[in-house]
Amino acid sequence: MESCSVRGIRGLYPIAVFHFRGLLMKGAEAVLVPDRFLGKKVLRKERRKKGYRIKEIDEKIRLGRTRREARLLHAAKLAEVSCPTVYEIGPDYLVIGRLRGRKLPGKGRELEKAGEILGKLHAAGILHGDFTPYNILVSPSGLQVIDFGLGSFSKKVEGRADDVITMLRGIGEKEQFLKGYRKFQGAGEVIARIEKIEARARYR
């Protein structure tokens, strides 16, 4: 495979020349395209241009979100959370490792582990933003977290509560998940906030 170097956000990155093989997945914000990077199977996550936005603003938004997601993935790995490896950062795309596994089931022992993982992210000051069973893969090596595109760096209790609520809405055995999450030192405050949010919803 032919290779070359391009200038990324923080200097030169050796890359492979990409030959797209078709769209893998399309979301509201980005598309994932399977490819190869220096012999490895990877995904190229592209944030496409939005025609309804002013060009300069659109470029700034896509650059900011791309950089932020790369930092989130790096921070998650430092927190010992299994997630895609970032191989290259561009102005509006990331080249990331391709993970394989099945969607997290709505019940079972994996839910407790998923709760522990979210606790690790929150302890590291990371909000995932879309912590659902679809963004957690079950593999022989353990659970892997994907798609940090809506994530952010924050220690706000409300944001942490939103992450937990997002998962609870998609699973059956809620207590199994919370059992794992309670291992996070700040879990008590987060769960108390969730109870307040649910109480407000009941009386609306």
- Helix and strand sequence: EEEEEHEEEHEEEEHHH
Which structural class is indicated by helix and strand composition? alpha+beta
Mean pLDDT: 87
CATH homology superfamily of the largest domain: Transferase(Phosphotransferase) domain 1
Q: Could you give the distance between the termini? A: 60 Å
Low-confidence stretches: 1-21
Overview of this protein structure:
The chain folds into 2 domains: 95 residues, Phosphorylase Kinase, domain 1; 101 residues, Transferase(Phosphotransferase), domain 1 (Orthogonal Bundle). The strands form 4 sheets. It has a 5-stranded antiparallel sheet with strand order 3-4-5-7-6, with helices on one face. The longest helix has 24 residues. The protein has 204 residues and is α+β, with helices and mostly antiparallel strands. The N terminus is likely disordered. Helix 3 packs across helix 5.
In brief:
This protein has 5 helices and 12 strands. With 204 residues, the chain is of the alpha+beta class.
